[in-house]
């Protein structure tokens, strides 16, 4: 398993309606300064993926959990907040880039690779005020 920030999950989650889901906790290296409850909105700008989807995720001690998702994640968030990852769900790969701010916001882009679905979009993240 890998460690991942909430924002890294946004792109894969925007295509989740196209794939069956179970449950997952995946790990990618994430500095502790990003711990907390995050709301992630993934917006599709091109392709047949869901137009806009919001997810609520929890990062605690570098573990990220989102009930109902079966995904593989390979990537990281640097201490300065640079997000680089690839999320794989079935045959669909979703490269993600962007940034997180320790004060509780983030944004970036994503695109699907492989599989039957070709989509691109952006993501934005906001950490709950109680976690900032």
Automatic annotation (TrEMBL):
Signal in keyword set: yes
Keywords from the named record: Signal
Signal sequence extent: 1-23
The name this protein goes by in its record: Heme utilization protein
Organism listed in the record: Methylobacterium tardum
Lineage: Bacteria, Pseudomonadati, Pseudomonadota, Alphaproteobacteria, Hyphomicrobiales
